[in-house]
Amino acid sequence: MSKSKYDVQVNPDLCTGCLRCGLACSELYTGAFNPLLARIHVKVSGATCEILFTEECNACGVCADNCFFEALTKTRKEAQA
Ligand code: SF4
Ligand code: SF4
């Protein structure tokens, strides 16, 4: 986890529940397009979304790359001296 170059920020208010993030994560790490296997879980409840990461999440930033709605964004971590 400490090897990650990114921090992933979450803004649930902008989330549409499209699940592109989970599709991208599951495809990358399991080879299957199945959000249930992703390291990010989006729970849609009415007009609100809750976004959670599993312990396996390594903050690679791929889910943020695949979010078109800026509900997920990534920032590069400062280089550790
Ligand atoms: S940061 Fe990487 S490992 Fe974590 S949920 Fe997003 S795509 Fe998956
Ligand atoms: S976080 Fe982004 S990619 Fe994931 S469900 Fe919400 S809007 Fe879609």
Describe this structure in words.
- The protein is of the alpha+beta class.
- The chain has a single domain, classed as Alpha-Beta Plaits (2-Layer Sandwich), CATH 3.30.70.20.
- Helix content is 19%, strand content 27%.
- It contains two helices and four strands.
- It has helices at residues 20-30, 62-65, and strands at residues 6-10, 40-45, 48-53, 72-76.
- The strands form two sheets. Strands 1-4 form a two-stranded antiparallel sheet. Strands 2-3 form a two-stranded antiparallel ribbon.
- Strand 2 and strand 3 (48-53) form a beta hairpin.
- The longest helix has 11 residues, at 20-30.
- It is globular.
- Bound molecules: iron/sulfur cluster (SF4) (2 copies).
- One iron/sulfur cluster (SF4) is lined by residues 8, 25, 39-40, 53, 57-63.
Describe the structure concisely.
This protein has 81 residues and is of the alpha+beta class. It has helices at residues 20-30, 62-65, and strands spanning 6-10, 40-45, 48-53, 72-76. It has one domain (6-76): Alpha-Beta Plaits, CATH 3.30.70.
Write the layout of secondary structure elements.
Elements: E1 6-10, H1 20-30, E2 40-45, E3 48-53, H2 62-65, E4 72-76
This protein binds iron/sulfur cluster (2 copies).
